[in-house]
Every structure is written in C-alpha cells, then in structure tokens.
Design goal:
CATH architecture: 3-Layer(aba) Sandwich
Shape: globular
Number of helices: 8
Number of domains: 1
CATH class: Alpha Beta
Strand order of the largest sheet: 2-3-1-4-5
CATH superfamily: P-loop containing nucleotide triphosphate hydrolases
Amino acid sequence: MHIAIAGNIGSGKTTLATLLAKQYKWKAQYENTEDNPYINSFYEDMQRWSFNLQVYFLNSRFRQIIEIKNSGKNVVQDRTIYEDAYIFAPNLHSMGLMSTRDFNNYKSLFELINQFIKPPDLLIYLRATVPTLVKQIQKRGRDYESSIRIDYLTRLNERYEAWASTYKLGKLLVIDVDNINFCENKKDLGTVIDKVEAEIHGLF
C-alpha cells in the first residue's frame, strides 16, 4: 500500500505522514529538505536556482518511488513527484523564474521518468488557504522559508486546485486544513483516519 500526501508549503504534509505512519505502523517517506543543497540558495535567488532545485527534487522523488516499490512495505509518502512536475516547475516558468529552455528540458526528463513509475494507491490532498499556510510556516520557523512571498503561495494554491480537480491517476481524498487540526486535536485526527480507512478499504 502506497499513500501519498500532497499539499502546498505549510499545509501539514509531514505532520500527517508521521501521524498516519504511527497509526498504521507503516514506513514514513519524508521529503528531505535538510540535506537539500539548493533549497537555501533557491529562496535567496529563485531565478538562478529554480532549474537546479527542480531537477534535484525530480531525482530525489524518483529514487523514493523506486525505494518504495522495492521495499515491499506499506508506505506513507510526504509529497509526490507529480507536484514537482505539474505545480512547482510550471509555476516557476510562468513567473519568469525558470527559462523556457530549462522548463522544456525539465518536462522532457519528467515525461521519461513518468513511464517507469506507478501512482500511489491513495493521494491525500491537504487543501489550505494562504492565511493558514502563512500561519503554519511561521509557526515552524524554518529560516529558508522566511522569505517566501504571498503571491508565490497564492499561485501555488491555484495550481494545486487545478491539478486536484483533474487528478485521475487513482483515488483522491481532499482534506480541508482550514477547518481541522489533526496535529493537536485527537478528534480531528480521528476524523481524518476514518476518511482514510474508507478509501483504503475501497481499494480491495
């Protein structure tokens, strides 16, 4: 079983991945930002480092998918390769922060990789408004995220909504983060788990 959690920066992906992995005693596969050699440089100069960062993420995410497949274990994954390809890279291109030449190169690489990967059994999309995202980003206090612009988060949110509305690769569960606090409220977490249970049982 492969569950993947998608959502904008600060939506609670890592927290939910941890909680679900604990609930089901599954392996959690996290997005590795601490060892990312480009993340700090990217937020300081997006135009210079956008292509490097996105290729790094593409490589990292592809490796994760291969590891998940080869492990034979049940896994909860924090963020998907599809978000990089359909949300983050196109957004950078549309904002003029990635050249058309680099973007076309990136798309070609993703299209090749996409032939060798299988989508998750269940995709959980954490939907959140920008004020909620800003609040949670500030709360966790990562230095490299302090310079994220509101318009950047807004554009990402628009792309997440468009992508989720057309997602047809498998089962999709949308959780409205504005109206639920699964991190601190056990009842809210129970509500999320109930929804996940319903989707998982529907897979068999």
